[in-house]
Amino acid sequence: MSQSDLKNEINAAEVEPLLPIEKKLIGWSLGLGIALLAVLIAVNHFVPIKL
Amino acid sequence: MSDIAVKVSQPVALRARLNEDWLAVVIGLLVFGSALASIGGTDLLGWAVTTSVYTDIAQALNPFAKAYAWLGGGGALLATYAALLVVLSAGVAALGADVRKFALAFTAVFAIAYASWIFGSYAYVAAVTPAEQQKFGLSWSLKLTNEGGFIVALLSGLVIANFFPRFADWLKEAIRPELYIKIAIVILGATVAVTAAGRLNLASSLLLRGAAAIVEAYLIYWAVIYYIARKWFGFSREWSVPLASGISICGVAAAIATGGAIRARPAVPILVSSLVVVFAVVEVLILPFLAQTFLWQEPLVAGAWIGLAIKTDGAAVAGGGITESLIMAKNAAEGINYQPGWILATTTTVKIFIDIFIGIWAFILGYIWTNHIDKGPDKAKPSEIWQRFPKFILGFLLVFALSLWLAVGSTPQIAKALPAAAGEANVFRVIFFVLTFFSIGVLSDFRKLWQQGFAKLAAVYFVSLFGFVIWVGLLISWLFFSGFKPPLAS
After folding, report:
1. How far apart are the C-alpha atoms of B426 and B428, rounded to whole Å?
2. Could you report the per-residue pLDDT of B423-453, keeping only the tens digit for each?
């Protein structure tokens, strides 16, 4: 596949709507990520860096 | 990877990437093992060339060990070139590359890259403190530190890529930034261990905080960038997955691994990789200087930020090296002298933590895609986690663990001799960094950003990187590392 084919494909591609499984993936990732970050921030607070 | 890499047969490129990991482990261990021999009294690498800050070029180069002083700077440079040529030629032969083409191209690559490094050590470029300027009799200098040579190597590569494309094409057999940086990272395991051994508490605290990087890259960055690519820019799933992985995780390796996992056409992640490299160059040219200006009082925040913000292992780890030099220089000018190694160790820890999970993330995406989106007979298998695991990390961990044991668990004599051995190996780490910077430059064809079609890909990258990734990375780095400084040099 040449680069010009890929360029045309990028410009001409039809929009694929987000599927429910993609929405789940995004939502779960963000939710889990924010929750884990909160846990790590708490750990960071209670177990500070030791010099 | 730019045009040059895109033109490579894609299946071959994918196989080669995996083999490069093991080759990096072998060469990295070879350098580390040879350096360790010096602990037993046999100096196998003392002939390696080092470069000092200079005003008289005749004083610039020297062999690492005084025992090899008879070689002189020029002899050490030739010996280093010859050794690298032999070892790397054997390595690329194992990858199935054209050894003759590689040898010719590597000769030019080494010559230009190391000349850039030497230029970067010129006192007018490198001298930082007033004491250094006085020592060399200078009234001014660019204060880039001797690691400014990395920037010079990068710029040399950029000039070749953008103004001498036929020469860039001729060099392509030796333009292997992923291989060079992976070898450097394996070797870096020794330096990181020696640094950590001095302050085990601080080192273990840094490891704990590395977990935040994993959460940020995989769960937050990826999800947001995938959404931006799909919803705001209308990219298909096949394009959005490698794009989100390239921008959020670790550039080239992640784009290729996750692209393969969702069964994207090989050309798609490889094309995305070319953009990753171009943007990494832009970041390396900007972020270390921003870190020096705004984060010089928070060195570990700066180190973590560079690891989180710059994609591709090469640009990130090498960018950490530049950042360390710039921040240490700024602090030295203020009379604060930190132990070297901590900023780079923070960047490396963050990057290694992110890299470790590429295989698992690729499998999760592969499982979702092959079972729920593009259902077909070719289902994702758990064995793909190992197949896509970046194997060079095993080399880094082995070198790190062995060095740490030698530093804290062996005899006092060995522990005392280890820093010198690690320093000898570090000479090659620096050379592989220089080769990486030059290679990244040669692969960065900026004209690509203006080409119709790719501008849309670049727009996603630009919006995500400068509108989100570097700021969230800064926030997370600040939350976890602010207020803690590297130990002071004794």
Report:
1. 5
2. 999 999 999 989 998 998 898 877 766 665 6
Domain span at A33: 20-51
Q: Looking at this predicted complex, what is its ipTM?
A: 0.91
State the total domains in chain A. Answer: 1
CA distance readout (Å), B153 to B63, B216, B313, B331: 21, 31, 17, 25
Rounded to an integer, what is the distance from CA B26 to the centroid of its chain? 18
Answer yes or no: is A51 within a domain.
yes
Statement: residue B382 has pLDDT above 90: no
Task: Judge whether residue B15 has pLDDT over 60.
Answer: no
Residue of A nearest to B477 (CA): A41
Would the CB atoms of A11 and B479 count as touching at under 8 Å?
A: no
* Structural domain includes residue A8: no
Whether residue A44 lies inside any domain: the answer is yes
Interatomic CA distance for residues B333 and B396, integer angstroms = 33
Q: How far is A25 from chain B (nearest CA, A)?
A: 8
| Cβ neighbours of B341 (radius 10 Å) | 22
Whether chain B has a CB inside 8 Å of the CB on A38: the answer is: no
Query: What residue of B is the nearest CA neighbor of A47?
Result: B205
Residues B209, B213, B216, CA angle at the centre, nearest 5°? 130
Chain A residue with CA closest to B452: the answer is A7
For residue B312, what pLDDT is reported? Answer: 79
DSSP of B130-187: HHHHHHHT-S------TTHHHHHHHHHHHHHHHH-HHHHHHHGGG--HHHHHHHHHHH
Residue A5 within any structural domain of the chain: no
* Under 8 Å between Cβ of B442 and B112: no
* Cα separation, B339 vs B118, whole angstroms: 25
Sign of CA dihedral B230, B361, B215, B192: negative
Segment B73-119, tens digit of pLDDT: 999 999 999 999 999 999 999 998 999 999 999 999 999 999 999 99
Let me know: does B145 contact B325? Beta carbons within 8 Å.
yes
Rounded to an integer, what distance in angstroms lies between the CA atom of residue B415 and that of residue B434? 29
- Among residues B116, B84, B117, the alpha carbon closest in space to that of B103 is found at B84
Tokens of B33: 């093992």
Residue contact B237–A22, C-beta within 8 A = yes
Which residue numbers in chain A have pLDDT < 70?
Answer: 1-7, 49-51
Nearest 10 degrees: Cα torsion B341, B346, B352, B354: -160
Q: Examine the pLDDT at B214 and tell me if it is beyond 90.
A: no
